[in-house]
Amino acid sequence: MSRYESVIQDNLYAQNDSFLFWLHERDTFRADRFDELCESVEALAQDKITLEMTRDITYIYQCILKELIYHFDPNDSSVIKDLPENYTEYLEKFDCALAGYFTYGAQ
pTM of the predicted model, to two decimals? Predict the structure, then answer.
């Protein structure tokens, strides 16, 4: 398993110091881990894309969006510490990584 595949796997299960581990388990937004996740998605676009990898990356993106929704829901107790004010720029960065994944991987 490549380093990039390991990052996806760790985020999929919110384990091993991954972005989703910090976001979901510790309610903390780790920009360095987010960047690592985006880098992994972009790098995997250069590799052979599999249905399983596509499913996993899509699931991770859904989890990120849900955590943000929970954070802003006044009826939910979830609060993300250190959420950057420019969090929408991070979402856009992940959108671009996904677009690259689907565009380059489809060729």
Answer: 0.91
